[in-house]
Amino acid sequence: MGAIVAIVGRPNVGKSTFFNRLIQRREAIVDAVSGVTRDRHYGKSDWNGKEFSLIDTGGYVVGSDDVFEQEIDKQVELAIDEADAIIFMVDVESGVTGMDEDVSKLLRKVDKPVFLAVNKVDNAQREADAVEFYALGLGNYYTLSSINGSGTGDLLDALVKVLPDAEEEESELPRFAVVGRPNAGKSSFINALIGEERYIVTDIAGTTRDSIDTKYNRFGFEFNLVDTAGIRRKAKVKEDLEFYSVMRSVRAIEHADVCILLLDATRGFDGQVQNIFWLAQRNNKGIVILVNKWDLVEKETNSVRDYTAKIKEVIAPFDDVPILFISVLTKQRIFKAIETAVEVYKNRSKKVVTRKLNDIMLPIIEHTPPPAYKGKYVKIKFCTQLPTPYPQFAFFCNLPQYVRDPYKRFLENKLREHFDFSGVPITIFMRKK
Ligand code: GDP
Ligand code: GDP
């Protein structure tokens, strides 16, 4: 549940170049392994040991500059609502533009930290040119070159200093966030569970709630249900734009233990649903997929099987995730859905005793050891689950750097076979012993 940092600014100032530089180290590796193309405008970064999520808001706007001009106010407002800090990027090559002034006007009113980043300062002459950005009335600025990396360290030093610490958790109760695209049925789902129409929210001016939580008790298990549809209403944004649904989902997902991902069966597990799914997965959250509006689908013998297979194909290799077919309208399986979410929560907090873990894993490893690498043999001596809020395992061996990802996946699959981690991402580390 790190902090959220939004990068705003007009097109071509270098936002995505900067964004890629920051997230590259981590995400490039993940993507190369899984071969999955992911949402390139949201990623995790860290600096001086502090982790944060980075959102390149400009990345969500497709179309011409004109379109952007109309959208920018809404974008900046949403960034202000949802982010902990804002990086406002401008371009020294073009100097101050009208659009920069418009954005500044919005940002001057904000009481969140705003960092003015003057980009494309590739040399000393441009350093001098940057002074004109004082005119934006945002105070001091940071000069940087996203292309060669100079200056980015100073900006990041200042940025992480103001970010809230990761570990301050507001609620002791488990948090289940109901996420998905607009119209998937999220509010209806929550209404059906709660049994009253309290989710027809009116816009209350000036409310700053992040999301709408309801304490809920079922099967003797108490948790907070987090409604992300409520966030949309708060932001008064009606458009069905990817940017908005991602922005809305990020915070809710980061603060959740389990994400209940609803989709409209008639629309399918499309790109936007996938983005939300990967957002949850990358944050190591528990996940339950609910295919809603199943009442609208004309069913044949294999409908459920085929639909499930299609989703699993898309989410592979992380396909050990419960998929339920529900109808909020007819209340079909909605309580089963909650029961499953509770199971996933328990899987995520499960701690496997070291002794039992080794009793099961070591014979498997002995039978199928890691392949020799450059003529060297890797010997895994023992393993343990780390005391983290979600499942992470360390395998101790002589040559950790020689264990490749396919073998780690093999280990993960064996862990999943023997211990129920359904719906929960697992991380595996090889450590030197
Ligand atoms: P965005 O639209 O704000 O995301 O901008 P991009 O990251 O796509 O960059 C727009 C253009 O500016 C690209 O051609 C980049 O190569 C270039 N650019 C980005 N950062 C720098 C920089 O630090 N110096 C220079 N000279 N060019 C840059
Ligand atoms: P949200 O934007 O995700 O909160 O979606 P809503 O809860 O507002 O629902 C969007 C629309 O889908 C509403 O008209 C609901 O009545 C309808 N809806 C929700 N669940 C179902 C369902 O299971 N079956 C059918 N047929 N319609 C549903």
From TrEMBL:
<comment type="function">
    <text>GTPase that plays an essential role in the late steps of ribosome biogenesis.</text>
</comment>
<feature type="binding site">
    <location>
        <begin position="227"/>
        <end position="231"/>
    </location>
    <ligand>
        <name>GTP 2</name>
    </ligand>
</feature>
<comment type="similarity">
    <text>Belongs to the TRAFAC class TrmE-Era-EngA-EngB-Septin-like GTPase superfamily. EngA (Der) GTPase family.</text>
</comment>
<feature type="binding site">
    <location>
        <begin position="180"/>
        <end position="187"/>
    </location>
    <ligand>
        <name>GTP 2</name>
    </ligand>
</feature>
<dbReference type="InterPro" id="IPR031166">
    <property type="entry name" value="G_ENGA"/>
</dbReference>
<feature type="binding site">
    <location>
        <begin position="56"/>
        <end position="60"/>
    </location>
    <ligand>
        <name>GTP 1</name>
    </ligand>
</feature>
<dbReference type="Pfam" id="PF01926">
    <property type="entry name" value="MMR_HSR1"/>
</dbReference>
<dbReference type="GO" id="GO:0042254">
    <property type="term" value="P:ribosome biogenesis"/>
</dbReference>
<feature type="binding site">
    <location>
        <begin position="9"/>
        <end position="16"/>
    </location>
    <ligand>
        <name>GTP 1</name>
    </ligand>
</feature>
<feature type="domain" description="EngA-type G">
    <location>
        <begin position="3"/>
        <end position="167"/>
    </location>
</feature>
<keyword id="KW-0342">GTP-binding</keyword>
<dbReference type="InterPro" id="IPR015946">
    <property type="entry name" value="KH_dom-like_a/b"/>
</dbReference>
<dbReference type="GO" id="GO:0043022">
    <property type="term" value="F:ribosome binding"/>
</dbReference>
<dbReference type="InterPro" id="IPR006073">
    <property type="entry name" value="GTP-bd"/>
</dbReference>
<feature type="binding site">
    <location>
        <begin position="119"/>
        <end position="122"/>
    </location>
    <ligand>
        <name>GTP 1</name>
    </ligand>
</feature>
<dbReference type="InterPro" id="IPR016484">
    <property type="entry name" value="GTPase_Der"/>
</dbReference>
<dbReference type="InterPro" id="IPR005225">
    <property type="entry name" value="Small_GTP-bd"/>
</dbReference>
<dbReference type="GO" id="GO:0005525">
    <property type="term" value="F:GTP binding"/>
</dbReference>
<feature type="binding site">
    <location>
        <begin position="292"/>
        <end position="295"/>
    </location>
    <ligand>
        <name>GTP 2</name>
    </ligand>
</feature>
<dbReference type="InterPro" id="IPR032859">
    <property type="entry name" value="KH_dom-like"/>
</dbReference>
<keyword id="KW-0677">Repeat</keyword>
<dbReference type="Pfam" id="PF14714">
    <property type="entry name" value="KH_dom-like"/>
</dbReference>
<comment type="subunit">
    <text>Associates with the 50S ribosomal subunit.</text>
</comment>
<protein>
    <recommendedName>
        <fullName>GTPase Der</fullName>
    </recommendedName>
</protein>
<keyword id="KW-0547">Nucleotide-binding</keyword>
<feature type="domain" description="EngA-type G">
    <location>
        <begin position="174"/>
        <end position="349"/>
    </location>
</feature>
<keyword id="KW-0690">Ribosome biogenesis</keyword>
<dbReference type="InterPro" id="IPR027417">
    <property type="entry name" value="P-loop_NTPase"/>
</dbReference>
